[in-house]
Amino acid sequence: MMRKIILTAAIALPLAAQAQQGTFTIEGNIGKLGSPAMAYIDYMSNGAGKEDSAALVNGKFTFKGNSEGYSYARLALSHDGSGKMKAVYTGDVIYFYFGKEQIKISSADSLANAKITGSKVYDEFTAYNKFIGGTIMDLNKWANGQVAAATPEQRQDTNFMKNLNNEYRQRMKARAEKQLEFAKTHPKAYFGMVALSEGTGSPVDVKRVEPIYKAMSAELRNSDQGREMGQRIAAAKTIHVGAPAPRFVQKDVNDKTVKLDDVKGKYVLLEFWASWCGPCRAENPNLTQQYKKYKDQGFEIIAVSLDDHKDKWLEAIAKDGLPWLHVSDLKGWNNEVGRLYGIRAVPANFLLDEHRNIIAMNLRGEELNKKLTEVFGK
């Protein structure tokens, strides 16, 4: 469905940050809101995800913390105190960049209508978005508006929804083209690297992307986001069917070290997922069925989680009843194995033979089942 596609596109974007660390202050003033209204912020600091919350008093709230110079934030406001998750996914939420600054966010009624001042980084972000045609959230707002404005008959019309979906994807494609153009023409700008990272997509077009990347300043390429972009390019060159899977080491749920090479003489499904990923969780019943069917014939699953909260990770494993090997460094999108494999969206997986060579990629549902039947003979 259209709504599912739109939400997935928005969720699949990792946050980014770089440069020397310093303090920031975000002061909000949203009308006269008071108890039980709450504000929630998620942002990156020193390569790790941070979160905070604040109660609104006469419309005011304050957040303080550390920024590396360019930090990406999600700020959500629960007007009725119904909690963070509802505010994030169905409520009043904005996404923005900020730096080591004193930022003010003000509006008479909502974050959606708020004005952000006091941030040079945000002004750069605004100029960048004007060049590329808006944020992902702007594009999603347009698409959801089209659905809302449609008649009940149009919403039930397969051709109408298909055409709307096609237009949405065309706008996404045009935006990505503008991002690559921005990256090419702004090789020293922070948002040039942001543009290259977001506009590249998956799979990486190495011939087109690598020259743009190499032309960017050494400072940008040596930033955390720049190194991640370099890893994606390297992964696109080396990770493919027939190639050896990159070796890795990561801790399991009990903080014990797990190595890919520890699982010897078995076919391995390397599964990238997260507790917050709906499509990942939806596939788990099928993975469970296939694991039970083939585990005694030499089949193993190593699930690499892109979670950053151990309790949520463990809760998802227990709730979905997942009996295979689980590893994570709890760095979210900065998971070292995920970066090594160039992962930019989940779910994603790689099927390895007993010699650790990749024999298939991104198999889901019946495609995975057919491949396992082919491997194990029944």
In words, what does this structure look like?
The protein is of the alpha+beta class. The chain has 3 domains: 2-118, Sandwich (Immunoglobulin-like); 140-238, no CATH class; 249-376, Glutaredoxin (3-Layer(aba) Sandwich), CATH 3.40.30.10. Helices cover 42% and strands 24% of the residues. The protein has 14 helices and 16 strands. Strands 1, 3, 4, 6 and 7 form a 5-stranded antiparallel beta sheet that branches. The protein has a 5-stranded mixed beta sheet with strand order 14-13-12-15-16, covered by helices on one side. A hairpin with a 5-residue loop joins strand 10 and strand 11 (257-259). The longest helix has 28 residues, at 158-185. It is globular. The two termini are 34 Å apart. Residues 1-20 have low confidence and may be disordered.
Instruction: Assign the structural class, choosing from mainly alpha, mainly beta, alpha/beta, alpha+beta, or little secondary structure.
Output: alpha+beta
- What's the gyration radius in Å? 22 Å
Mean pLDDT: 91
Global morphology: globular
Helical content (DSSP H or I, runs of 4+): 40-55%
Report the β-strand fraction as a percent range: 15-25%
Instruction: Kindly report the name of the CATH homologous superfamily of the largest domain.
Output: Glutaredoxin
Main beta sheet strand tally, sense and closure:
5 strands, antiparallel
Order of helices and strands: HEEEEEEHEEEHHHHHHHHEEEHEHEHEEH
CATH structural architecture of the largest domain = 3-Layer(aba) Sandwich
Number of domains as seen in the coordinates: 3
The first-level CATH class name of the largest domain = Alpha Beta
Uncertain regions: pLDDT < 50 for 5+ in a row? 1-20
Number of strands: 16
How far is it from the N-terminal to the C-terminal residue, by CA?
34 Å
CATH topology of the largest domain: Glutaredoxin
What's the tally of helices? Answer: 14
